[in-house]
């Protein structure tokens, strides 16, 4: 984006590999992305620009182009919180009027429930960490993949339990560790919600035949990463 961002912002950055400074993991705050129509345009066009390979000189024109093309993916990065749940919508003008806005308490809930990352990592690692439950927007013409990745605390728990495990390939585990570290530093509310979900619902939210395996994974994750949070 060529203009200064007003509603979404980068809040932290780490390089997952000591020998490759070009690779990086960025944590972004999208909790205000649905604050108003201008915020929705900023969030959607910022995310979409990565795939279109250009700076967005006229965000509203680009917003309308995305609607004309039927490119729904970037609109999924704008969330609305209702009754303690996250509702993923396409937010087109014929669904929400331009003067639609969310309340401050909803913004607080989104900040403790949604995490958004922008990553530049080797493409083979990108393929390993992608999961259909996340929202993605990516640039596919590089051997080092660049993409946006967003999900709620329930999806992130599954992600971290799987990708932080010592059995995972080191390159992938280092990316997951950088993401976890950024959340601990800059978005601790979502770590608290992840811990609550692990303790109260994660083992039960599965096919019963997987309950023993989930209990083992939950025990390992609590002891390895959540001791301080659950103390």
Q: Can you describe what's shown?
A:
The chain is of the alpha+beta class and 231 residues long. The protein has one domain. The chain is 45% helix and 19% strand. The chain contains 9 helices and 7 strands. It has helices at residues 37-52, 59-69, 104-111, 123-129, 153-163, 170-186, 188-202, 211-225, 227-230, and strands at residues 9-14, 24-29, 79-82, 85-88, 114-122, 135-139, 144-152. A 5-stranded antiparallel β-sheet has the order 1-2-5-7-6. The chain has a two-stranded antiparallel sheet with strand order 3-4. Residues 88-94 have low confidence and may be disordered.
Provide a short characterization of the protein structure.
The protein is an alpha+beta fold and 231 residues long. Helices cover 45% and strands 19% of the residues.
